[in-house]
């Protein structure tokens, strides 16, 4: 009798207040509450709750899903942690994956990003003709490695690779199933170390910062929510030209120390992935540019890393970073008599 009275008191709470209360619950608690009675079973399916949970992954569009409840429980609950940008640990060169959620295709698609420079040759710098200026004009290519696709008829997701379909329950291909992995942070950049790390063989069952696919491991370093951070003017993924090594991807992050660090997501035989390519003190203004290319722009003192093949005898050389805009920077490598531009990807 007392339990019935409590239940009546709960269901008599105004709808708006009950929504506010239940909005504080995590997905598991909301699911457990829905099992208690018919009232909460129906109430907990209110799409407002599940929209907020989808927003945690940076998603607020339904696409071809019937509702956000289906979207979250059908694919995001188990695989949403995959959404974002991942750095691969392939020796020297590394790689970059973008796992993107497409609500219209009911899928999370893993794209491998590569780029070439459409600007094939450098031009003399107007301030000093002996210095070569190379503009980064990237052309991107995308290769699909795999995708996780929601099956509406079964209310579960399947893994698709190339033209082959893998069911989680039936697939025994241990070389394909995405697996847990652990990693050690690079001592300087906090991306991959150069050494090999241990790997777990079981399938992923929860949120991880790292996974293994085929013969490569991937570390998540950027999510859609990172794009929403304030006071991070230059934070993001950029590309720049490294001469004969071509276009490379970098992660730019501003630290509280006042320094802007550019870490190689992909690398080359001289300075491999995971190393800091250059760092700039944004509190140490060097000059106001008077050259034709960047007249009136401000440059700052910087240090850039160079090395012989195989990352032998790495050293830092004096450089300067010219702030062209929030989406373009130029780095003047003094000793190399070269200026390269960097442009934002995200």
From TrEMBL:
Keyword terms of this UniProt record: Ubl conjugation pathway
Protein name as catalogued: F-box domain-containing protein
One GO BP: protein ubiquitination
Record-linked PROSITE patterns: FBOX
Coiled coil (residue ranges): none
Superkingdom of the source species: Eukaryota
PANTHER family hit by this protein: F-BOX FAMILY PROTEIN, F-BOX ONLY PROTEIN 31
Source organism of this protein record: Rhizophagus irregularis (strain DAOM 181602 / DAOM 197198 / MUCL 43194) (Arbuscular mycorrhizal fungus)
One Pfam family from the record: Cyclin_D1_bind
SUPFAM superfamilies named among the record's database cross-references: F-box domain
Domain named F-box: residues: 7-53
Pathway connected to this protein: Protein modification; protein ubiquitination
């Amino acid at each position: 009798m007392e339990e019935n009275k409590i239940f009546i008191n709960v269901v008599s709470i105004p709808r708006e207040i009950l929504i506010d209360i239940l909005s504080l619950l995590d997905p598991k608690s909301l699911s457990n509450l829905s099992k208690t009675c018919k009232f909460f079973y129906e109430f907990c399916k209110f799409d407002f709750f599940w929209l907020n949970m989808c927003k945690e992954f940076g998603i607020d569009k339904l696409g071809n899903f019937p509702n956000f409840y289906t979207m979250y429980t059908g694919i995001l609950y188990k695989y949403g942690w995959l959404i974002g940008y991942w750095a691969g640990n392939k020796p020297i060169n590394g790689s970059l994956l973008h796992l993107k959620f497409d609500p219209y295709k009911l899928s999370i698609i893993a794209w491998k990003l590569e780029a070439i420079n459409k600007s094939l040759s450098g031009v003399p710098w107007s301030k000093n003709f002996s210095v070569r200026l190379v503009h980064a004009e990237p052309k991107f290519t995308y290769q699909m490695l795999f995708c996780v696709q929601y099956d509406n008829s079964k209310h579960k997701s399947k893994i698709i690779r190339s033209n082959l379909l893998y069911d989680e329950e039936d697939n025994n291909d241990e070389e394909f199933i995405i697996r847990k992995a652990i990693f050690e942070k690079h001592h300087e950049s906090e991306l991959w170390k150069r050494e090999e790390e241990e790997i777990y063989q079981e399938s992923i069952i929860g949120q991880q910062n790292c996974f293994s696919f085929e013969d490569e491991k991937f570390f998540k370093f950027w999510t859609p929510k990172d794009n929403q951070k304030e006071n991070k003017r230059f934070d993001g993924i950029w590309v720049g030209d490294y001469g004969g090594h071509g276009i490379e991807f970098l992660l730019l992050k501003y630290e509280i120390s006042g320094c802007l660090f550019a870490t190689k997501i992909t690398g080359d035989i001289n300075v491999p992935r995971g190393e800091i390519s250059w760092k700039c003190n944004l509190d140490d203004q060097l000059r106001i540019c008077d050259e034709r290319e960047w007249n009136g722009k401000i440059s700052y003192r910087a240090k850039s890393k160079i090395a012989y093949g195989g990352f032998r005898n790495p050293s830092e050389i004096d450089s300067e970073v010219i702030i062209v805009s929030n989406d373009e920077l130029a780095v003047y490598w003094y000793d190399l008599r070269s200026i390269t531009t960097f442009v934002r990807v995200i």
